[in-house]
Design goal:
By secondary structure, the chain is α+β, with helices and mostly antiparallel strands. The chain is built from 1 helix and 8 strands.
């Protein structure tokens, strides 16, 4: 009788574990799908493709900037994309106000493209470094 109870207990435990495993899929980390490093730049950069989505999904776009000789309110990066409703969206960072980093979340349909650009607000003789990354969240 004890043997049957033990076998029954093991069987129930296996069924419970299998059901639990199906209801709780393994979580994954966001994947970097595109990145750009721009160093010692002295001119603006027009809209340039960062990535074209082969699956569609949710993306986190990050920009980080360094200024030389110092932050003087001149440079700002911008992201642009068309979302699933066909509307053009923009993610603009306040790096022109001496912020050095920022993030935007974008929903891109299958085949959609995310563009980046770096614009300037005046014509001072300065330079910047920019580090741009796109991570797919979903």
């Amino acid at each position: 009788m004890r043997k049957v109870a033990f076998v029954l207990l093991v069987f129930c435990a296996v069924l419970f574990a299998a059901r639990f495993a199906r209801s709780n899929p393994t979580l994954t980390s966001p994947q970097i799908v595109a990145s750009v490093v721009l160093t010692d730049q002295t001119v603006a950069i027009d809209a340039t493709p960062l990535l074209t989505s082969s699956t569609g999904g949710l993306y986190r776009l990050t920009a980080y900037a360094e200024f030389a000789p110092q932050c003087d309110n001149t440079w700002y990066p911008e992201f642009k994309w068309i979302d699933g409703t066909g509307q053009t969206k923009r993610g603009l960072y306040g790096i022109g106000s001496c912020l050095t980093s920022g993030q935007v979340i974008a929903r891109i349909p299958l085949g959609g493209t995310i563009f980046y650009s770096v614009q300037r607000t005046n014509q001072q003789n300065d330079s910047y470094n920019a580090y741009i990354t796109a991570e797919q969240l979903q």
